[in-house]
Amino acid sequence: MPFRSAGTGMAPGIDLLAPLPPGSVAFLLMSESAIIHRACFPAPLTKLNIESMPRPPGFPGQQQAIPLAGTPAEQQRQQEGGCSGRGAEYDSNLVTPPLRLCWEAYGTIPDVVTYSAAIDPVLGRPKPDGYLV
Predict the structure, then answer these.
(1) Which of 20, 63, 73, 114 could be disulfide-bonded to 24 (CB atoms 3.0-4.6 Å)?
(2) 77-115: buried (b, 16+ CB within 10 Å) or exposed (e) per residue?
């Protein structure tokens, strides 16, 4: 399922969610899930981007991102045949599930809460949409 047509880096959220009435707030909790991004940025930049997202009040803790690509654990996974093919060549018609492919970069995001946004169709800029993701 396409998560966000404009890209989650520009407007965190999910296109599947219906617009909320003005002043409403709703939450999207993701657990044991995956997001495949269109672009692959260097791990330090990705980590900085995620960890600098504003965290809403009422959610203790800090934003956390852990890049894993290129780590000894990932290298061992590849040597043991834990992944096959290349993620950059992923096509939804392939037999190999996306999470079993060898991606150029990947990681885990154990704790992130931020404001969701939608792209304003007139201005072409992100605007808050009332969801917390």
Answers:
(1) 20
(2) eeeeeebebebeeeeeeeeeeeeebbbebbbebeebbbb
* Residue 66, CB-side half-sphere exposure with 13 Å CA sphere: 8
Q: What is the pLDDT of residues 26-47, one digit of tens each?
A: 988 888 887 777 677 778 888 8
Amino acid at 27: F
Which pLDDT tens digit goes with each residue over 61-97?
A: 999 998 876 555 566 666 666 566 565 555 555 666 7
Half-sphere exposure of 42 (CA within 13 A, CB side): 2
